[in-house]
Amino acid sequence: MNDTKKLSVDIKKIWRLKALLEFIFFMIATAGLLWWHRLAPEKLQSWILSVALIVLFLGLAGLIFELVLVEYRWNFWTYFNDDRQVELHRGFFFRKQVVIPIARVQNVTLKQGPILRWKNLQKVVIETAAGSSEISGLKKPEADQLKELIMELAREAKNDI
Asked: Cβ distance 7 to 136 under 8 Å?
């Protein structure tokens, strides 16, 4: 029986919002360059205008790329946990699988910024001595349940050693 779980559908809205905020940053940079273009000496104006257009193009290309990837990222971002490990799977073309042995878990943290809070989502951060991995985009009850389950299994695994 495969008990693989997916992230909440609401994480797609968060990813789209993140892409839009990044695009706004590029627009602000472009506006700053255009403002500088008006004040710069005539020798630099064409160079500054070229840089502004490149920044605008990169921002627009990044926005389109990120928006297209949202559905792909959501479809191929899954996780699985049992009494021995937590597995995180990402990607189809460029696959990444992270396996975290329960016995190695030191801490599980729940994080929630204002954007995740807007959709009642949380990020579960699983920490080991080797580093940390995260599952971003779980509904609050699911995140709480996963945290408690992992910590309980980790305590049992440490008692068995």
From this structure: yes
Alpha helices (runs of H) in the chain, residue ranges in sequence order: 11-39, 42-75, 114-118, 140-160
Task: Give me the pLDDT at residue 75, please.
Answer: 93
Tokens of 146: 């996963």
**One-letter amino acid of 35:** W
Residues near 57 by beta carbon (within 8 Å), at least 6 away in sequence: none
Residues with Cβ within 8 Å of 59's Cβ and at least 6 positions away in sequence, in order, are: 22, 23, 25, 26, 27, 29, 30
pLDDT of residue 1: 44
Q: Which two tokens stand for residue 153?
A: 């299994």
Residues 13 and 31: beta-carbon distance below 8 Å: no
Quote the pTM value: 0.83
